[in-house]
Amino acid sequence: MNDLLKIKTIGQLRAAGYKVLSVKDEVRNNLIDKLRRSETIVPGIVGYDTTVIPELCNAILSRHDFILLGLRGQAKSRILRALPNLLDEYIPIIKGSEINDHPFAPVSKYAVDLVRERSEDVEIEWIGRDQRFGEKLATPDVTIADLIGDIDPIKAAAQRLHYAHEGVIHFGIIPRTNRGIFAINELPDLQPRIQVGLFNVMQERDIQVRGFPIRIPLDVMIVYSANPEDYTNRGNIITPLKDRIGSQIHTHYPRTLDYGITIMKQEAWTRRDGLALSVPHFLYEIIESVAVAARQSEFVDQKSGVSTRLTISCLENLISNAERRAYVGGDKTIVPRICDLFAALAAVTGKIELVYEGEQEGVINVSKGLLGKAIKQVFLKYFPEPYAAMKKGQNPYANIVAWFKNDRKLDISDSMGDDEYAKALQRVDGLRDLVKRHMPAEMMRGHAEMAVGMEFALEALHQNSMLSKDEIDNVRIYSDMINKMFSNISRPEDEEDSDEV
């Protein structure tokens, strides 16, 4: 390739025996090479190895234009932006061409006239794969001129050309991506009359501008992304255009908790300035379980979806709340706690769309409910189910619940220093022994991590209705459930007596 890059004219290129493939053949050949070498097709994508990636390969091997169809936060844009990796590192074009003209088969008037005048002496230049990828977010204000092109009156005046002259055309973004890959994100948002303008590009592989009698053939691979049609009322994909798209590939959310956690860790910004970070694994599981619970919740609009960005942002907020505490307390290690999860709910409330019933509940209450359900679910992965254990006469939580009798309470704040936090939790009889018995030793490897595990058990007992909890600002007060219930009962006769008085 380095020797080829030294070639400067069409004649030298032809003498070197260089063969220029169509863009779809080029992508297909490079994909085949990757498959033979067992290389990763789309770097950074997790959980699609047996679903989306094979379908993607099939579409490319079939030389199809294709569409990725799925809810938000399913890596559609990342997949499209990874496609240039399947292009050749460099290709030759006629120097100065606006639409990357093929040296041996030019199509623009500029390049055709240049070859007619100078023949084999026409200069070429080499462009990289990044220059051969175009992308446009479909919005209602996108015009045919943006995508295909239009007459440029300034060019006509400057060059003294008649408006019927081909030289007055200002090419849009698709022709400028000739011999490359062009991606349109959120296709349904493109107005139907603009979608019609893509018919020729998709089928006949040419463009027409303002009724010019000439047609300019293009070599371009067009790919799309879209949410399902019932996701939005803003628009849909018109049937004739859908018919011209070779393959429709459905994306999906992570199908296992481990895949979701891997994506979360990969995408979240977790490296903080100079401070070590220790996140107990069950906190990752709780955050991912929040997203899973949201995707199943009756209060959340399932047509909208719940993006993986929810878990990424939630983890970042979790760490940031712990980081803030570490700076205030002078700690050298950031160790997030259960109480930090509640401080991180700001990352959840803005990323779920609620149905009517959810709006009635309120987004804060829905988010807390999802977090509570996630904590309860992850708790049962490590600890015995409380009520099932009680039925068997083996209640491992009896000492903990008994400690809260006689109006005993435990206050936990996310502003507590590590020592104060651990001492408060160790006051509860049997709590440390319970965690040590059931939580994996590798998760409880340090003093701080053990304290987080103890708070986890305490919060889970509340979620299982074995302990009461009150919240005042950033303080959570755990107390006996039975005493709390009785204290909330107001007898009618007492109210009558008070009225008489």
Model description:
With 501 residues, the protein is α/β, with parallel strands linked by helices. The protein has 2 domains: 4-250, Rossmann fold, CATH 3.40.50.300; 257-486, no CATH class. The protein has 24 helices and 16 strands. It has helices at 10-15, 23-36, 52-61, 76-82, 109-118, 144-147, 153-159, 192-196, 199-203, 239-244, 257-267, 281-294, 309-329, 338-343, 346-349, 356-361, 363-382, 386-391, 398-403, 418-426, 431-438, 447-463, 481-487, 492-500; strands spanning 66-69, 90-94, 124-128, 133-137, 149-151, 169-171, 180-185, 206-207, 216-217, 220-226, 247-250, 276-277, 333-334, 410-413, 467-472, 475-480. The strands form 6 sheets. It has a 5-stranded parallel sheet, with helices on one face. Strands 14-16-15 form a 3-stranded antiparallel sheet. Strand 8 and strand 9 (216-217) form a beta hairpin. The longest helix is centred in the middle third of the chain and has 21 residues, at 309-329.
Cα-to-Cα separation, first versus last residue: 98 Å
Strand order of the largest sheet: 4-7-10-1-11
Question: CATH superfamily membership of the largest domain, which one?
Answer: P-loop containing nucleotide triphosphate hydrolases
CATH fold label of the largest domain: Rossmann fold
Residues in helices, as a percent range: 40-55%
Given the structure, what is the number of helices?
A: 24
Instruction: Summarize the main sheet.
Output: 5 strands, parallel
User: How many separate structural domains?
Assistant: 2
Unreliable residue runs? 490-501
User: What oligomeric state best describes the polypeptide chains here?
Assistant: single chain
CATH architecture of the largest domain: 3-Layer(aba) Sandwich
Query: What is the count of β-strands?
Result: 16
